[in-house]
């Protein structure tokens, strides 16, 4: 890919989702819609040859991807592509397609689409996870072959082998998980907000990102030089040499600032008036622990276990999960690790569960709702967690709790599994704390009721804000309503912290708001005990808290909670603290 030149530099504004500066060539991630039309053909021999050519092209492409995946991601991930290759060579699938072309004199696209649909339906209706996965394989492979038949380019991020900035309409969390940090220097998307999961992952992977731009796909061609400024939420397309120089300087300044914060890596987090709070990190994989320790995290405040279930074709086994949890607990060397049970749904899909599409996935069958129904899956996770508990300081929390009854059900399943394991003679840690996420307004309002039953709360503001203001966290059109400092949110947060303290329990926050520099003084004043954030935000937050006095802020809390608008809160905090 060569760098293309254009005369004009364009600046596109979006939401800075992950700090840092990236300068590299654009790589567009295309995911076009494939439209299949039925056509009659006269030369069926040529049509079959067209099908065969598309099959061959797909095979050689898959071979390359498989090798690349093996080198970069390991044998596990490479196996997915091996399964795809097998589908392409399966006469049970391919012969009926050829028969259809010859017998009905129809075009290859149509024959392939029709035959594949029959197989997909048959496999999907089987009551067997393995067979259901075959449906997903056939769907993926069919798409690839159809794209070749239609002459459409479908880009593949795992094929990237030079430094790029990814340009995409959207990135799913599993797309993000597959990005190779060595080559992907930054990314920018049309849709998404600061708290969409791809943005959260970008922060933990330290990949600068700007999301919600609405127009990068429209404006940026493949190969153009692009600067992603995740600090100020800007994308600069085709910058002049001077601009590149200025951004290189900005990147160096940011690095210097980070080096300054890094001096606090082994310090406790103490305010100017000697009040200690815990600064913990949010992680998605055991590999993320390295970043937590390098950034001086005092614990893991949220381990999003769902990433263990993603980017694969089947549920992780109890043994696999046990190994991951044990690894995290051991690497954290006795520091607290709050593991959240599976929170799938919303923008985090598991295709192999084959759940029907929903009108409102964020309000639908997700997280604890799904776990209480799909209990085998839930129990497997709980067993793995309980077994791992002796390797460190484990705390377990349940996501998306809306009612006290849900918490009781989840906890009693946990206790049942604990008893079973103990009967089997398995060692389990004493006194594992069991808490919940407060991310649904009903649980914040009823925090006093929950506080009697839980060991701790962790406030999930990413969801709490979207549900309180009824503003989809993924939708940049309503991002103006996504207001962390809205008095409604601040009042709910206060209710949760006060309710916890009244019962002698602790309250943390693992939503992105916990690492937000405007929110931090308010949260300190409200008495939040634990702040859990992207590891890369910890040192900056520690530096900020060292200059704040909790007692001084407490005097203003009533006034802040009586302010009518976000703007008032922001300008007050900026001026006062
Ligand atoms: C939250 O909702 O604030 C949270 C931490 O959970 P997630 O972002 O994974 O939904
Ligand atoms: Mg949430």
UniProtKB/TrEMBL annotation:
Protein name, UniProt field: Phosphoenolpyruvate-protein phosphotransferase
Organism: Priestia endophytica DSM 13796
Protein family according to the UniProt entry: Belongs to the PEP-utilizing enzyme family.
PEP-utilising enzyme mobile domain: residues covered: 161-233
Domain PEP-utilising enzyme C-terminal: 258-548
Enzyme class, UniProt record, top EC level: transferase
Domain spans labelled Phosphotransferase system enzyme I N-terminal: 13-134
Domain of life from the UniProt record: Bacteria
């Amino acid at each position: 890919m060569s760098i293309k030149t254009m005369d004009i530099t364009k600046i596109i504004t979006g939401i800075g989702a992950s700090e840092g500066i990236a300068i590299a060539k654009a790589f567009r991630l295309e995911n076009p819609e494939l439209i299949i039309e039925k056509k009659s053909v006269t030369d069926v021999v040529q049509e079959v040859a067209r099908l065969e050519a598309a099959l061959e092209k797909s095979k050689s492409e898959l071979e390359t991807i498989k090798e690349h995946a093996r080198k970069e991601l390991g044998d596990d991930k490479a196996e997915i592509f091996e399964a795809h290759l097998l589908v392409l060579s399966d006469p049970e699938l391919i012969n009926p397609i050829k028969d259809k072309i010859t017998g009905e004199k129809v075009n290859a696209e149509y024959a392939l689409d029709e035959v594949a649909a029959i197989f997909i339906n048959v496999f999907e209706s089987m009551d067997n996870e393995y067979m259901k996965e075959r449906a997903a394989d056939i769907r993926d492979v069919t798409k690839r072959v159809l794209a070749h038949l239609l002459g459409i380019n479908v880009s593949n991020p795992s094929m990237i082998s030079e430094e790029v900035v990814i340009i995409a309409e959207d990135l799913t969390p599993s797309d993000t998980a597959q990005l190779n940090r060595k080559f992907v220097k930054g990314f920018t998307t049309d849709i998404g907000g600061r708290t969409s999961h791809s943005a959260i992952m970008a922060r933990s992977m330290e990949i600068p990102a700007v999301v919600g731009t609405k127009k990068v796909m429209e404006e940026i061609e493949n190969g153009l030089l692009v600067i992603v400024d995740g600090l100020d939420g800007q994308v600069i397309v085709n910058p002049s040499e001077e601009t590149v120089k200025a951004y290189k300087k900005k990147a160096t300044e940011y690095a210097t600032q980070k080096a300054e914060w890094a001096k606090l890596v082994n310090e406790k987090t103490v305010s100017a008036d000697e009040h200690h709070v815990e600064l913990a990190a949010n992680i998605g994989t055991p590999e993320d622990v390295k970043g937590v320790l390098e950034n001086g995290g005092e614990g893991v405040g949220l381990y999003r276990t769902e990433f263990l279930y993603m980017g694969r074709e089947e549920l992780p086994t109890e043994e696999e999960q046990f190994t991951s949890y044990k690894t995290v607990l051991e690497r954290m060397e006795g520091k607290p690790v709050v593991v959240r049970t599976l929170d799938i749904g919303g923008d985090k899909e598991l295709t192999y569960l084959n759940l029907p599409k929903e009108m409102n996935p964020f309000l639908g069958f997700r997280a604890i709702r799904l776990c209480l129904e799909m209990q085998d899956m839930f129990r497997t996770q709980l067993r793995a967690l309980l077994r791992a508990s002796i390797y460190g300081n484990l705390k377990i929390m349940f996501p998306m709790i809306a009612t006290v009854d849900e918490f009781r059900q989840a906890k009693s399943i946990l206790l049942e599994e604990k008893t079973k394991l103990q009967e089997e003679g398995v060692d389990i840690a004493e006194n594992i704390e069991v808490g919940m996420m407060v991310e649904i307004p009903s649980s914040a309002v009823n925090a006093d009721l929950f506080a009697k039953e839980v060991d701790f709360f962790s406030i999930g503001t990413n969801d709490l804000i979207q549900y309180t203001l009824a503003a989809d966290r993924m939708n940049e059109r309503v991002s103006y309503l996504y207001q962390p400092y809205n008095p409604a949110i601040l009042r709910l947060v206060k209710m949760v912290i006060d309710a916890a303290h009244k019962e002698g329990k602790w309250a943390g926050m693992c939503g992105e708001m916990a690492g937000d520099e405007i929110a931090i003084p308010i949260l300190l004043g409200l008495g939040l005990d634990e702040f859990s954030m992207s590891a890369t935000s910890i040192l900056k937050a520690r530096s900020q808290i060292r200059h704040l006095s909790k007692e001084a802020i407490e005097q203003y809390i009533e006034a802040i909670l009586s302010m009518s608008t976000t703007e008032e809160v922001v300008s007050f905090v900026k001026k006062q603290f």
